[in-house]
Amino acid sequence: MTQARILPLEGINNFRDYGGYEGLDGRKVRTGLLWRSAQHGDASDVDLAAVSSLGIAHVIDLRGPSEREMKPCRRHDDFAGQVWTYPEETAGLALHTEAADGVLTAAEARAAMVRLYEGIAFRENLTPMLRLYFELLLRAEGPSLVHCVAGKDRTGWAVAMAQHALGVPREAIIADYMLTNDASRLEERIAAEAFKDLPRYASMDAETVRALWGVEEDYIATALKVTEHRHGDLDTYLEQVLGIDAAKREALRAHYLEG
User: Fold this and answer.
1) Is-contact 129 86, C-beta < 8 A?
2) DSSP-based three-state secondary structure for 193
3) What are the residues whose beta carbons fall under 8 Å from the beta carbon of 4, sequence distance 6 or more?
4) What whole-number distance in Å separates Cα of residue 206 and Cα of residue 212?
5) Rounded to whole angstroms, what are the CA distances from 41 to 69, 143, 157, 199?
6) Which InterPro entries match (predicted)?
7) Tens of pLDDT, residues 23-60
8) Which single residue of 12, 47, 131, 229 has CA 20 to 30 Å from 187?
9) Are 97 and 112 in contact (CB under 8 A)?
10) How many CB atoms lie within 10 A of CB 143?
11) Confidence of residue 92 (pLDDT cuts 50, 70, 90)
C-alpha cells in the first residue's frame, strides 16, 4: 500500500493519497478522496491530465503570495476544481527554505527545522488556511488536494491533523509523514546534486540538504509534543484553534471512514 498510494508524476513531487489507513474503530479511511502534494509549477502536460482525472473539487494551496508568484501552479484546461489561497504570507518562505538561512552543517539544519516545527501549529497566517481546509473537508463535495511548496511541512501538519481527527493511530500518522522521503524522490534529487544549482544550498553537503529537503520523525514528533503541551491533547487543539469539535470530528468520520 505504501507505494500504491503514491501517484508517480513527472514534475509534481510528493503527490499521494493519504487515505487507506486504519481510522477510528478499525474503519479504514476512504481512498481517492484525500490527496496531498508539493507545488504544481513544474507539472508536465501528462501530470496535468493525471491530476485532472482525479476529479478534485477543492485545492487548498497553503503557500503565500510570494511563493505562488515565484512558482505559479499549472492546471489542465479541463480542471474544474476550486483553488483556495490566503492573501497574506503563510510562511514568508517554505519552512525548509527558512531553516536553511545561515545553516552550514546537518546538525544545524536539523536544529533549525525542529525550532520551526515547535511553532508550526500556531502560525498566525497558516491557521486560517488550516481552518478553511477542515471546512472544505466537512462539505464533502468530492476529492480534495492540500499542498504547499514541498508538500511536507505545512502540508504535513495539515494532513497529520486530518488523520488524527479521523482516528488514525499516531504511528501511522508518522509513517505517512515519513513517506515524503520516498514520494519526493529525495535521494534521487540529492544524488543528482540538484541543490548545487540553487545558491542557498550550493555550499551545503548532501547530508545537510537531506535534513532540510526531507523529513525526520523528530520534526513531526516535536510539533505534536508542543501542541499537546499547550492544549493538553490534540482534540483540544483541533477544537480551540481550528474549530473542529467532537461533533465535527464525528461528521468527518462519517464522510471519510468506510463502514
Assistant:
1) yes
2) coil
3) none
4) 10
5) 10, 21, 22, 20
6) Prot-tyrosine_phosphatase-like, Tyr/Ser_Pase_IphP-type, Tyr_Pase_AS, Tyr_Pase_dom
7) 999 999 999 999 999 999 999 999 999 999 999 999 99
8) 47
9) no
10) 18
11) low
- pLDDT tens, residue by residue, 162-189: 999 999 999 999 999 999 999 999 999 9
Task: Tell me what pLDDT residue 230 has.
Answer: 97
Cβ atoms within 10 Å, residue 101: 9
Q: Check if the beta carbon of residue 87 is closer than 8 Å to that of residue 193.
A: no
Q: What 3-state DSSP class applies to 126?
A: coil
The answer to whether 169 and 22 are in contact (CB under 8 A) is yes
Q: The whole model's pTM is what?
A: 0.95
- Burial 186-205, CB ≥16 within 10 A → b, else e: beebbeeeebeeeeebeebe
Residue-wise pLDDT for 139-170, tens only, equals 999 999 999 999 999 999 999 999 999 999 99
Q: How far lies 39's CA from each of 63, 68, 90, 164, 231, in Å?
A: 9, 9, 15, 24, 31
Cell matching residue 158: 495539515
The three grid cell numbers given for residue 185, joined into one nine-digit string: 524522490
- As given in the structure block, the three cell numbers for residue 160 are 497529520
Which domains does the chain show, CATH number per domain?
16-254 (3.90.190.10)
Closest C-alpha to 123, from 100, 151, 93, 103: 93
